[in-house]
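Blinded run. Sample ID left blank on purpose so nobody reads anything into the name before looking at the predicted structure. Input follows.
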Amino acid sequence: MMDWKRSFADTKVRDVYDLIVKEPSKVQRSAKIMDVIDQMLMNPTSRKVYVIDVEGNLIGVVNTEMILRLIGYRVGVKENSSMAFVHFLKDTLKEDVEDIMILKVRPVKRETPLTEALKSMIEFHVNDLPVVDDDHKLIGELMSSELFIAAKRLFESP
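Blinded prediction complete.
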């Protein structure tokens, strides 16, 4: 009988990271928010658009939560508080990706153990991780769904 717990522990990011998302959504640093929305619409399984420089190096990320918040501000869906109004003033006029991208990105590499990627997802409350090569160029995206595929046998009845 196969030891699935051991099998999962031996799995690397390279074994699963492209099962669902074949090509990560990405834009250049100079892109507009509209470009991010277009990328999200073209790749609806992904919840992020990665920001890269001209060499393809990962420099940031824009997630769906940020875009939804900006949409909410533009259509008037907001909380009734002074902090919400401050956020509204701060965010509503933004048009450039550089203004909204998150700089703290925690990438993994193809050789990263899947257990390490899982630990990062849990610790940093993220569902997806960018996959980069040794030169920090974006080559893929590891989605939580891909971890589910690899771990599903852990929950099967004996």
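Unblinding after everyone has recorded impressions. Residues 1 and 158 are 10 Å apart (CA to CA).
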